[in-house]
Design brief:
The protein has 403 residues and is α/β, with parallel strands linked by helices. It folds into two domains: 160 residues, DNA Methylase, Chain A, domain 2 (Alpha-Beta Complex), CATH 3.90.120; 230 residues, Rossmann fold, CATH 3.40.50.150. 33% of the residues lie in helices and 12% in strands. The strands form three sheets. Strands 1, 2, 3, 4, 5, 6, 7 and 8 form an eight-stranded mixed beta sheet that branches. A two-stranded antiparallel ribbon has the order 9-10. It has a two-stranded antiparallel sheet with strand order 11-12. The N and C termini lie far apart (58 Å). About 7% of the residues have low confidence.
């Protein structure tokens, strides 16, 4: 590189030079993306005032790291599949995919794009509606036997129980969602799922949800669901709340898991790691991906606020947080009914994360593609169970009940 080229590169990364470009955009009204382009820059060339701190972090687990050497020869059926986070984890542990039920047509498109050999029951072919017992029973009866020697996995939609999704709303307002089982649709999907478990008698099952499910109504509803399963012959374990960050996922994310089986074998849960994985391990100096990499073109006034943030600090106006590369990310948020929740800020670039970057925090492989508008891609990623966490749960279930 010539001395002139080095000097030009240094100028472009100079915070004062970048501030002048931001000021120009604000004063002239010319879009920041256009001004940056004219200067030979892109959003990813922007820097924070306090940046490039030294940090170290071990590498996170990947599905390749955890992949079982042999198939378990056991089938699985998933419900409320979403974009397939739980399914990917169980697939990596040798469980064979028999069927998936998903009501959202876009999510079904994502599943069919990435796993064309899976049997996806959902729009436009069928409803995929777990609350329609007759339809689901008819579809499943054609491909599996009763009792089923495999496993059922599923997470009934958790929005009615979510705390994070309601922090923006007044409890007295019509948008307040934390109504749990009073919700006329999603609040009853847990019992629709329980009914299917009782009907098909899989050898084991997993119910996944947010921790709020355990605490809602002082635990009465979850206790009722567990009682129904116990009466049907299942040995149901005490609900577990696991934080993905304890299992080498570069993100703090708590999920509740209820596991049961028709066997008398004891269950040995996955062992947590002593090391926390910094989010910088998947966001900084990583190989470029081809899919879902578009980033938001923020206005100059927003970038100027972001630039001043320290690691872990929140921009109060936009309510977004600059991530600390040495720590796991804050929880990836799915957003509301129409998607597009608040994304966090990149540790070293003053902009919000792309869908791909959020997917990396969730431990999806880079070749896993999310379809639809950007807002709906964020919804799919944010609603998912991290595949790497699911894989460790699947490995524990396999060794406890199936090997």
């Amino acid at each position: 590189m010539t001395d002139l080229a080095i000097k030009q590169k240094q100028q472009k990364s100079d915070i004062n030079y970048q501030r002048r470009l931001l000021d120009s955009s604000e004063k002239t009204g010319v879009p920041l993306a256009e001004i940056l382009s004219d200067a030979g820059l892109a959003y990813d060339d922007l820097v924070y005032e306090d940046s490039k701190a030294e940090w170290k972090s071990p590498a996170p687990y990947t599905l390749k790291d955890l992949k079982a050497k042999t198939s378990v020869g056991v089938g699985m059926v998933s419900f409320f599949t979403g974009c397939g986070g739980m399914d990917l984890g169980f697939e990596s542990q040798g469980f064979e995919h028999d069927a998936a039920f998903e009501i959202n047509e876009l999510f079904c498109k994502t599943l069919r794009k990435n796993r064309p050999n899976w049997k996806i029951y959902g729009p436009p072919i069928s409803s995929g509606d777990v609350s329609n017992f007759e339809e689901i029973n008819d579809a499943l009866s054609k491909i599996i036997t009763k009792p089923y020697d495999g496993i059922f996995i599923g997470g009934p939609p958790c929005q009615p129980f979510s705390i994070a999704s309601n922090q923006r709303f007044s409890k007295s307002g019509e948008n307040f969602k934390r109504v749990g089982f009073a919700h006329d649709k999603n609040g009853n999907l847990l019992f629709d799922y329980v009914n299917l478990i009782i009907e098909f008698q899989p050898k084991a099952f997993v119910i996944e949800n947010v921790p709020g499910l355990r605490d809602l109504d002082d635990g009465k509803q979850l206790t009722q669901a567990i009682s129904l399963l116990s009466e049907a012959g299942y040995n149901v374990l005490e609900p577990m709340v696991l934080d993905a960050a304890d299992y080498r996922v570069p993100q703090f994310r708590q999920r509740l898991f209820v596991i049961g089986s028709r066997t008398k074998k004891p269950f040995t849960p996955p062992k947590p790691s002593l090391e926390k994985i910094g989010c910088g391990s998947v966001l900084i100096n990583t190989k470029a991906s081809k899919h879902n990499v578009e980033t938001r073109e923020h206005k100059a006034e927003s970038i100027k606020r972001y630039m001043k943030l320290k690691y872990g600090q929140r921009d109060q106006l936009g309510r977004v947080d600059r991530l600390n590369p040495a720590l796991p990310s804050k929880t990836v948020i799915a957003g509301g009914t129409n998607g597009g929740g608040r994304s966090h800020l990149h540790p070293e670039i003053p902009r919000t994360l792309s869908v791909r970057e959020c997917a990396r925090l969730q431990t999806f492989p880079d070749d896993y593609v999310f379809l639809g508008p950007s807002a709906r891609q964020f919804t799919q990623v944010g609603n998912a169970v991290p595949p790497v966490l699911a894989a460790q749960i699947a490995a524990a279930i396999r060794s406890s009940f199936f090997d």
